[in-house]
Amino acid sequence: MKKSLLILTPNPAHPSHHGRWPAVLDAYRAAFAGFEIEAQPWSEPLTRPYDLVLPLVAWGYHNAPEEFRRALAHIKAKGYRMLNPAEILSWNVDKTYLRDLAEGGIRIVPTLFADTLTPETLSRARADFGQDALVLKPRISAGAKKTLVWEGTDVPDGAPELDAMIQPFMPAIQSEGEWSLIFFGGDFSHAVLKTPKPGDFRSQPDYDAHLRAQTPPVTAVELAYQALEYVGQTLLYARVDMVRNAAGDFCLMELELIEPDLYLKYEEAAPARLSHAVEHALGMCGHRH
Prior knowledge:
Elements: E1 4-9, H1 21-31, E2 36-41, E3 52-54, H2 65-77, H3 86-93, H4 97-103, E4 112-116, H5 119-129, E5 134-138, E6 148-150, E7 162-168, H6 172-175, E8 178-184, E9 187-195, E10 210-213, H7 218-231, E11 237-244, E12 250-256, H8 270-285
Parallel strand pairs: 1-2, 1-3
Antiparallel strand pairs: 4-7, 5-6, 5-7, 8-9, 8-11, 9-10, 11-12
Helix pairs in contact: 2-3
């Protein structure tokens, strides 16, 4: 009998996410061809048993983060096996996890967290970072939503009003790009280098960035493993995003553990590696709710 997987998909109350996600779900269905696959919105209660719940397409959680955290808690309380685990996902919702990583000795892009953005906080950030160009973004966000590069003294229109984070703009994002390293079952699978189109700073394919498979430098892999080791448990999947600083050292930008694009199409063996990681996890957990 096939093992059953439930893939969580976007909340239908957020229609802005109805565009690309069905194709992403289809790619996961193809990768998990040896399993019985069902899908349902993360916002709806689970009503039948599954061997494993996967939040791989739980897009839009940033629009209702507390609702998402309640859904995670409910899944855990009902005894479902979910990977990545609910407590890790809840921690990963808010980018203040970067502060935890930094305190754990992981080199991150320097970050100042602010309850509200004011001219005073921008001035303090410039003093801390030693440069004028800043990146302003929400603590809870996805897909570069409300993310700006700013050199002015006043708070710009379109910036996050509350619960913001401020970082120095890293020029390497435009000259080299952002590295994304993908891991399955704790093992490195593949990497993608993402370079924004000329004049832009956003590395997502939605903004016409140039993505290509690339062998990452050893120092990039080392930083990624340090971040995963901090989490303290083997993760089914992870994407570690990073960029070089002015000295050429890699700095972690994000540790994506909820519903990252795993760039399966950029590595021929990636779907099989992901499927094997699920098989291994099911063999370890050995129970069904």
